[in-house]
Amino acid sequence: MTDGLRSAAIGILKANDRGGYTVPTKGLYPFQWNWDSCLTALGQRHFDADRALSEIETLFAHQWPCGMAPHIIFHELDDGYFPGPEVWACGRPTPTSGITQPPVAGFALKRLLDGAPALRDRARPLLARITAWHDWFHATRDPQGSGLVAIIHPWESGRDNSVDWDIPFQRVPTEGIAPYLRRDTQHADPAHRPTKEQYDRYIWLIERFRSLDWRTDKLHDASPFRVIDPSLNAILIRSCLDLADLAEAMGETEIARQNRALAQKGLAALPALWSEAHGQYLSLDRMTGQLIDSRSSGGLLAAFAPIPVEHAARIAATIDAHATRFRVASHAPDTPGFDAKRYWRGPVWLVVNYMIADGLSRAGQTKAATQIIRSSLELIRDSGFAEYYDPATGEALGGTQFTWTAAMVLEFLALEGAA
Ligand code: GLC
Questions:
Q1: Does the predicted model carry a pTM greater than 0.85?
Q2: CA-35 nearest atom, ligand 1
Q3: Centre of ligand 1 from the C-alpha of residue 159, in Å
Q4: How is the chain split into domains, by residue range?
Q5: What does CATH list as the number for 103-418?
Q6: Best mutation site among 23, 32, 36 for ligand 1 pocket (most ligand atoms within 8 Å of CB)
Q7: How buried is residue 7: exposed, middle or buried, by Cβ count under 10 Å (0-12/13-18/19+)?
Q8: DSSP characters for 128-155?
Q9: Pocket mutation for ligand 1, best pick of 23, 26, 28, 33 (most atoms within 8 Å of C-beta)
Q10: For residue range 304-355, what is the model confidence (pLDDT) as tens digits?
Q11: pLDDT tier at 417 (50, 70, 90 boundaries)?
Q12: Is the pLDDT of residue 3 over 90?
């Protein structure tokens, strides 16, 4: 069975491979996505470490001069996706989107090279590139130097329609946008995708940023949506620390020092997002200075950073309290806004499971981590390699033959084997 799963996962990664990059799935997502690629490399390393490194190299070949690694790279024309390159109009040699995604590259690169040290020399240029991205986050998304960086579009969190964004998103207008035709709802059940009103706001923000010529140093203050996401900040902290360790081992002491300094800023500020009442971290609306009372998996994923051990223990208990058959629901099931089938408002996502399990295991919460890994593999055995899953029934939802789901299965199988 394990062998069957392993070869099925490898089959998906190969089928979605387009040369130097991998598409998340055919049809629904026909380009390269930022954090998908970095996590995909972790799957590829189990059968082709060279190819895994190319995945990250290709992503950074399209980094912007300001340091931002864009969230989508439109390597080939494909009109099956909206908003395509003509909507973004970022003026890059190869078209890209103009926003970013959770910076998981530093973490992924370290994990990849830990298992493939022979690739270190080839990977050396990536250390400076990833550091430039980390710097860019702090410079442009934390202009006041609070230690925590903001997202300016929900897509930057990677958790597009999370309940976390509902209140701050109300501030984004829906009027005045150019007429458009969604393509996602032609590939997946509209009841399992974001709503039209949310799409209008997604597009309004893109049009706003485009009107500022994608000057990334101007966009934070120009956006009516500025939110501190605990998961993106935890990923940034973890990537800074991992990249620092890697750089040190490779004799790049200045890069190590820079990344450690950035991680320290984040770690010092992160406790402000902790909710003792909810036993997890929360998002913060930078426009009002208020924590957002929404219990999503973003606040659990904070465990990916080295948070205090007592917080990690509470997070493990909070996940238990969800009491869903499958772990980890992307939103607490007994709270407003939960929807078992709608994208980031309830369903289980394997990439989030992977990062939560990794963090909890490092914090000594071995039982909780093992439960997440077991639950993830059970889902795949029952329902196949979907984009996301109903946490109660395990029903497969969204896209099928999904790349990062397959990649995470290879990681989970290796962890299960090691245990
Ligand atoms: C969706 C997800 C995002 C992911 C992308 C490609 O937009 O919300 O996290 O990167 O699909 O899989």
A1: yes
A2: 10
A3: 7
A4: 103-418
A5: 1.50.10.10
A6: 36
A7: exposed
A8: HHHHHHHHHHHHHH-TT--S-PPBSSGG
A9: 33
A10: 999 999 999 999 999 999 999 999 999 999 999 999 999 999 999 999 999 9
A11: confident
A12: no
